[in-house]
Write a sequence for this structure.
């Protein structure tokens, strides 16, 4: 039996004070006042990639931190417990600063995991 690669696909939680953000499946990722809008787009790209990886034998964890309204600590705990080899994260220009901060913390929790980013900012300003 071969060892299955463990991959976490994340739509990181995005909160700033009294606002929470949306980025996946959204043309203009933004922060909106909490409890004023129930629109939370589904992260199709994460779901497609996770489904494909699972069909190829990977052990997959998917977290939609925006829809779940979960804490950063909850995400870190779940990814750490999964012992991910690869962490794939959607980002955007407007959430990049927050996302990188969370990923620094996540890397400290999971030092051997590789991290891959995708999204509008990465497409426009790679490397």
């Amino acid at each position: 039996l071969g060892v299955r690669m463990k991959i976490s696909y994340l739509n990181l939680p995005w909160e700033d004070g009294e606002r929470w953000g949306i980025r996946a499946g959204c043309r203009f990722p933004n922060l909106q006042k909490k409890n004023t809008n129930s629109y939370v787009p589904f992260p199709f790209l994460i779901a497609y990639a996770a489904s494909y990886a699972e069909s190829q034998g990977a052990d997959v964890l998917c977290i939609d931190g925006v829809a779940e309204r979960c804490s950063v600590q909850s995400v870190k705990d779940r990814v750490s417990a999964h012992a991910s080899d690869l962490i794939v994260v959607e980002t955007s220009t407007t959430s990049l600063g927050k996302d990188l901060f969370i990923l620094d913390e996540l890397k400290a929790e999971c030092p051997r995991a590789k991290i891959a980013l995708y999204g509008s900012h990465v497409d426009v300003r790679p490397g």
About this structure: The beta strands are 6-11, 15-16, 19-22, 30-33, 59-64, 86-91, 114-119. Helices lie at 44-55, 65-68, 72-82, 96-109, 120-124. The first strand starts at residue 6 and ends at 11.
